[in-house]
Design brief:
Blueprint (H helix, E strand, L loop, with lengths): L1 E2 L2 H7 L2 H18 L8 E4 L15 H5 L8 H12 L10 E4 L7
Parallel strand pairs: 1-2, 2-3
């Protein structure tokens, strides 16, 4: 499982790199699924970490987020725990966006 940052694509370009990671995830899922090897990508947006700690409640970035807040790291951890649990077998090949609707495919 690999984790990538969607913000790179949204705010600063980098779409080609994230497209390659998406293709890699799908290729692993298709090519190795019969061997019981599953692949997922987790794509968080703004997460409440040290990087986002400078944001204050009146920050214009927060105003631009549909939920009005950055994602709690626990939300990302819950998705990763589900994917790693073995209960997500038929999710293989997917990219799971955890962006609070800031980025919608």
């Amino acid at each position: 499982m690999h984790v990538r940052i969607v913000r790179t694509r949204l705010r600063h370009g980098g779409g080609e790199f994230t497209d390659v990671l998406d293709a890699l995830t799908k290729g692993i899922a298709r090519g190795y699924g019969k061997d019981n090897i599953l692949a997922y990508a987790v794509a968080p947006g703004w997460v409440a970490t040290d990087i986002a700690s400078h944001l204050s409640p009146d920050d214009s970035l927060l105003d631009s987020l549909p939920l009005g807040e950055v994602t709690p790291p626990e939300d990302v951890a819950e998705v990763i725990a589900f994917l790693a649990s073995g209960r997500s077998r038929h999710t293989t090949g997917a990219t799971i966006d955890i962006t609070g609707a800031d980025y919608v495919r």
